[in-house]
Amino acid sequence: MMRSRVQGFLAGVVLGTSAIAVISLGSVPARAETLEELDALSDLTADEATGIAAARDQATRGQLLDALATLERVLAVFPTSQNALLMHALYLCQIDDRQGGLVEIGKLKEKKFGAQVLSDARAQCQRGGGA
Question: CA-CA to 104 of 20 to 30 Å: which in 21, 111, 121, 130?
Answer without folding.
Answer: 21
